[in-house]
Amino acid sequence: MTDFANDATTGDAVALSGRLAIAVYEQIERLIRRGEFPKGVKLPPESELARRFGVSRPVVREALARLREEGIVRSQQGSGTFVIRGMLPSAAALPQIKTLADLLRYYEYRIDVEAATAGLAAERRTADDIAEISKVLAGAEEMLRQGEHQLLADANFAFHRAVAQATRNPFYVRTLEMMPNFIGRNQLDLVVSRQNSSDSYLWRIYHEHIAIFEAIAAADGVRARAEMQRHILAARDVVLNRQSLLANVEIDDRTT
């Protein structure tokens, strides 16, 4: 969970509320841009958004008001708040995933991109980058121990984004943000629904993240690439339910 409220310790309460509202607005706008809240969908209740972002409900209301002003969402009394703009053009640049073959192509692409990202992060990371990734991992561990599985999607994305930021190359960060929902809430929902032991699987993701982090912290680009590749391949196999699907799938290499 992104706890914006704890990031500030002093200052005028009104100014603080305004800064938090902007931060929440940016987070929700990013989720819409990435397609996690597609056009026509109803946003979660204010109370759930407040818990997700670690802020008060008035802060969420202010963020939603800004989204309404920009024509991104519309509120209906008694019904809730709905997304009316949908994904922005920048997020729609990647092809949509409509078939199992598309999903395999997506993971083929993601393996290359994220392995390269991890390798560069290991070569270029700063002390601040290491601290940020460590903070994200500590938050994920606490969520796991508390059983707050519904919050882990954000922590998962935060880890991958922190790694991308460590490359010092904004193109890697932007590429990550454009990737479909398989980094984030929808992926975890899909995975957990297919696992007999969601706790076991989610802890496995955490330990895979730890292995990637340790390679980056050690400035070992080769190992960081290998650990990230292993991590993405494992995610692919789970999403495809390897035992029943992967063995029977052949990728059609023809241009689509």
From TrEMBL:
Keywords: DNA-binding, Transcription, Transcription regulation. Gene3D superfamilies: GntR ligand-binding domain-like, Winged helix-like DNA-binding domain superfamily/Winged helix DNA-binding domain. It comes from the Bacteria. GO terms for molecular function: DNA binding; DNA-binding transcription factor activity. The keyword Transcription applies. InterPro entries: GntR_C, TF_FadR/GntR_C, Tscrpt_reg_HTH_GntR, WH-like_DNA-bd_sf, WH_DNA-bd_sf. Coiled coil: none annotated. Pfam families: FCD (PF07729), GntR (PF00392). This is DNA-binding FadR family transcriptional regulator. It comes from Chelatococcus asaccharovorans.
